[in-house]
Task: inverse folding
C-alpha cells in the first residue's frame, strides 16, 4: 500500500463530506459555548483545499503539507485558522527532517500537535481540539514504539479520537471563547474537538479502504 499525496483528493473530499453531514450538530455545539461560526470557518478552509486538490496530489508530503498549512492559515480565520495552519506547517517542517514512514509519522504528527499547543498556549484538559489531537498523538507514539501493526493502529485511532472528543463534555473551558462561560461551559462537547474527531475518523476510513484494496 502506497500512502502518497495522490490520496489527498479523496481525503479532502471525505473531510468535506463529513463536515457537511455534521454541520448542524457542530454549529449547535459552537452556538452553545462559542459564537457558532466554527463550521463556516472550517468550510472556508476545506473549500480552498478542494480547489487545490489536484495540484496537491502531484506534490510530495513536505510540499503538500506546507501548501495546506498556508492555505488553511489564510482561508479559515477564527482561532482555529492559525491553529490548523500551524499544525500542517509543522508537519511539513518535521517531515523535511526525516524520511516519512509509519514509524516516523508518529513523531512527525506529535511535533505538529506540539506546535498547536505552543500556538494556542493550551494543554490537554482545556476543552479544545487538542483533547482529541493529544491522545491520538500519544497513541500513535506508543503504537510505533511497540511496533503495533498498521491495521490495528487504524482500528484503534477512531476509538481514541472519539474518547478524546467525549472527554471534552465534562471539562470547563479555559481557552478560547468558551472560557468566558467558565463553569457554564461544562456539559457541552467542544466544537473543535468534534470536528477534529470527525476528520480523523474520515481519514482513517479512507486509509482503511486503501489497505484492503489490492495494489
Ligand atoms: P473562534 O473561537 O475564533 O470563533 P472557531 O469557532 O473556528 O474559532 O474555533 C473554535 C475552536 O478552536 C474551539 O472549539 C477549540 O476547539 C479551538 N480552540 C480555541 N482556542 C484554542 C486554543 N487556545 N488552543 C487550541 N484550540 C483552541
Ligand atoms: Mg467560533
Result:
Amino acid at each position: 500500500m502506497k500512502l502518497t499525496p495522490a490520496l489527498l483528493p479523496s481525503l479532502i473530499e471525505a473531510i468535506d463530506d463529513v463536515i457537511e453531514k455534521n454541520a448542524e450538530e457542530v454549529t449547535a455545539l459552537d452556538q452553545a459555548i462559542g459564537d457558532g461560526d466554527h463550521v463556516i470557518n472550517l468550510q472556508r478552509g476545506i473549500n480552498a483545499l478542494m480547489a487545490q486538490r489536484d495540484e496537491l496530489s502531484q506534490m510530495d508530503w513536505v510540499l503538500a503539507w506546507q501548501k495546506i498549512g498556508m492555505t488553511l492559515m489564510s482561508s479559515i480565520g477564527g482561532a482555529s485558522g492559525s491553529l490548523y495552519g500551524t499544525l500542517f506547517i509543522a508537519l511539513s517542517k518535521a517531515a523535511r527532517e526525516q524520511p516519512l514512514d509509519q514509524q516516523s509519522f508518529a513523531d512527525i504528527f506529535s511535533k505538529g500537535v506540539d506546535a498547536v499547543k505552543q500556538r494556542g498556549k493550551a494543554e490537554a484538559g482545556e476543552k479544545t481540539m487538542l483533547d482529541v489531537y493529544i491522545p491520538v498523538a500519544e497513541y500513535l507514539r506508543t503504537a510505533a514504539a511497540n511496533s503495533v501493526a498498521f491495521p490495528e493502529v487504524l482500528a484503534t485511532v477512531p476509538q481514541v479520537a472519539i474518547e478524546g472528543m467525549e472527554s471534552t463534555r465534562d471539562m470547563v473551558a479555559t481557552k478560547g471563547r468558551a472560557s468566558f462561560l467558565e463553569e457554564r461551559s461544562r456539559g457541552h462537547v467542544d466544537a473543535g474537538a468534534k470536528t477534529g474527531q470527525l476528520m480523523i475518523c474520515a481519514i482513517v476510513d479512507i486509509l482503511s479502504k486503501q489497505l484492503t484494496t489490492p495494489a
Remarks:
- The pocket of magnesium ion (ligand 2) is lined by residues 30, 34-35, 37-38, 78 (CB under 6 Å).
- Residues 5-212 form a domain with the Serine Threonine Protein Phosphatase 5, Tetratricopeptide repeat fold (CATH 1.25.40.340).
- The two ends are 6 Å apart (CA to CA).
- Residues 103 and 144 are 5 Å apart (CA to CA).
